[in-house]
Design brief:
The chain is α/β, with parallel strands linked by helices and 288 residues long. 36% of the residues lie in helices and 18% in strands.
């Protein structure tokens, strides 16, 4: 699908949208909102974020904060959102770390798991009934580990090389910050591949359709009633394609307009930021 509109910063903030795209967007009753690069960069709120939530509330739409960042848990994100002036309930936040723990809980409840992740990610797994271990391991999990040590990476490679079931929370190569980018889980996936010749058996976060299905369960809406809003082509927009839902790309994070030329999937709409999305939603018919 070709993007129906590409708005650059400073352009008219009320784009002309095709009838088909407008109908898909107008029918969305639940919005999956990426955070890093979409609503915020670090501790800085991005333009239009509060106004987007106000607009969604006025439309009677629901929303879920959906992030691939597994270095923090839901509680930490609720606290961060509150600091930024975007209050949220715990059930309104779904991280790839939580989604990975839920997925593995359905496959191997109570398993012994080696987790390469922050204390917050480790707590996600113990909170879902898993035993953290580095021997007689049932599964190895790679997350966004800002506390990474060489010893943890070495142990992970040993387990992966031995054929232990291997999961990653998400594929993001970098995480956008206020000062640039930092290496993310996708970069570590590449390092493990270089050392072992093996990729994860499963990557749970966006663009895995299961992430959208879990989000639909949280929102108590059918999957077809959702729309994805994010700043990455290979996770956020790709999730839209995998789940068959509208994907709105904002250029406030990782993706630049020039990146569209080589994108395997293209979004329904390209906007400079979520404030422009709020403007657009205000022009659409109200939800039935």
């Amino acid at each position: 699908m070709r993007p129906v509109t590409q708005m650059q910063p400073g352009a008219d903030r009320q784009p002309q949208v095709s009838a088909a795209a407008a109908a898909r967007l107008a029918g969305a009753r639940g919005f999956l909102l990426d955070m890093d690069g979409t609503l915020c960069l670090g501790e800085r709120l991005l333009p239009g974020a509060p106004r987007l939530l106000e607009t969604l509330q006025a439309r009677g739409a629901r929303w879920l904060f959906l992030t691939n960042n597994s270095s923090k848990d839901g509680r930490q994100y609720v606290e961060k959102l509150a600091r930024l002036g975007l209050p949220a309930a715990r059930q309104q936040v779904l991280t790839s770390g939580t989604a990975t723990a839920l997925y593995l809980q359905r496959q191997q409840p109570g398993a012994r798991v080696f987790v390469v992740g922050t204390p917050a990610l480790e707590a996600e797994f113990t909170g879902h009934g898993f035993v953290l271990a580095d021997s007689q391991v049932d599964a190895a999990v790679l997350g966004f580990d800002t506390t990474l040590t060489y010893a943890k990476l070495w142990k992970l490679c040993d387990l992966v090389g031995d054929g232990v079931p291997y999961l990653a929370t998400h594929p993001d190569l970098v995480c956008p910050t206020e000062t640039g980018t930092m290496p993310d889980t996708g970069a570590l996936i590449a390092a493990v591949r270089a050392a072992t010749g093996r990729d994860p058996d499963t990557i749970i976060g966006k663009p895995n359709r299961q992430m959208a299905e879990m989000a639909a369960e949280r929102l108590d809406l059918p999957l077809a009633a959702l729309a994805m809003v994010g700043d990455r082509l290979y996770t956020d927009v790709a999730l839209g394609a995998a789940a068959g839902i509208p994907a709105i790309l904002v250029l406030s994070g990782e993706t630049r307009a020039a990146d569209m030329d080589s994108a395997p999937q293209t979004p329904d709409l390209v906007l400079p930021d979520v404030g422009a999305l709020a403007d657009l939603l205000q022009t659409l018919p109200p939800l039935a």
